[in-house]
Design a protein that fits this description.
By secondary structure, this protein is of the alpha+beta class. It contains 5 helices and 8 strands. Helix 3 runs antiparallel to helix 5.
C-alpha cells in the first residue's frame, strides 16, 4: 500500500523544503542556536545538543507514516529550520502542518509565508486534502497570530490537551483551512509574497 504523503522537495524563491535527513544536523544545530528559541517554555524547539535526537524522532514518525518532516532552507541554501506534515490521515485526506520552527534570522521574513504556501499548495492540489490543520500552544501568541494571518480559522481550544516537558499542561488552539477556502487563502498568500515591502 502506498503512502498518502511521500517525501518531496518543494522549491520557491525564498525557501526550499527538503526531506529531513541526518545530513542537515549541523545546520539545524546552528539554526536552533540562533535566537535560543529552545528556551521558550511554550514551544518544543530542540536545543542544539538535542537536534540529532529530534531528527531521529521525526524520521521514526515518518517510518510509521504519521509524519513527513522537512528541513527548511533559505534562498541561499542555508538551513533555517524545520517543519512537517504531521498527524497524517490518508483515509480522511487530512494533514496538520506543524512542529515548525525557524532561526531568528529568518523570522518575520517572506520565508514563512512561502513555506506555508508551498505546503498548502501541495496538500490541496497534489494530495487532494479536504482540510489542513494547524495547532499551537494557547500561550504562543506569535504563532496564533501568524496562523490566523495565513487565513486559517480557529476551530477551538483543546483544554489540558498535552503535558509539556516542564510538567505544565498545554491548552492547544486548533485552526484549519478547508478545501473550499483554499483558492482565497492561496490568493491572499501570493499577494503577501508579491506586495512591495
Amino acid at each position: 500500500m502506498s503512502r498518502f504523503v511521500q517525501p518531496v522537495t518543494l522549491t520557491g524563491s525564498h525557501a526550499t523544503l527538503a526531506p529531513l535527513s541526518m545530513d542537515h544536523a549541523e545546520g539545524l544545530r546552528e539554526a536552533a542556536a540562533d535566537g535560543e528559541l529552545y528556551r521558550l517554555w511554550y514551544t518544543t524547539v530542540p536545543a542544539p545538543e538535542n537536534v540529532d535526537a529530534e531528527i531521529k524522532r521525526r524520521l521514526d514518525l515518518q517510518a510509521q507514516d504519521s509524519m513527513q518532516p522537512f528541513t527548511v532552507l533559505d534562498a541561499n541554501g542555508r538551513v533555517a529550520g524545520m517543519t512537517t506534515y504531521m498527524n497524517i490521515d490518508g483515509k480522511n485526506r487530512r494533514v496538520e502542518i506543524g512542529s515548525t520552527w525557524y532561526a531568528q534570522r529568518v523570522q518575520r521574513t517572506a520565508l514563512n509565508t512561502e513555506c506555508k504556501l508551498m505546503l498548502l499548495r501541495h496538500a490541496f492540489e497534489t494530495l487532494d486534502c479536504i482540510a489542513v490543520e494547524f495547532r499551537t500552544h494557547w500561550m504562543n501568541h506569535q504563532s496564533r497570530t501568524a496562523i490566523a494571518r495565513l487565513g486559517a480559522k480557529q476551530d477551538g481550544v483543546l483544554r489540558n490537551h498535552q503535558r509539556m516537558p516542564d510538567g505544565s499542561f498545554r491548552d492547544t488552539v486548533v485552526f484549519s483551512i478547508i478545501a473550499s477556502e483554499w483558492p482565497t487563502v492561496r490568493a491572499h498568500l501570493q499577494f503577501q509574497l508579491e506586495r512591495p515591502r
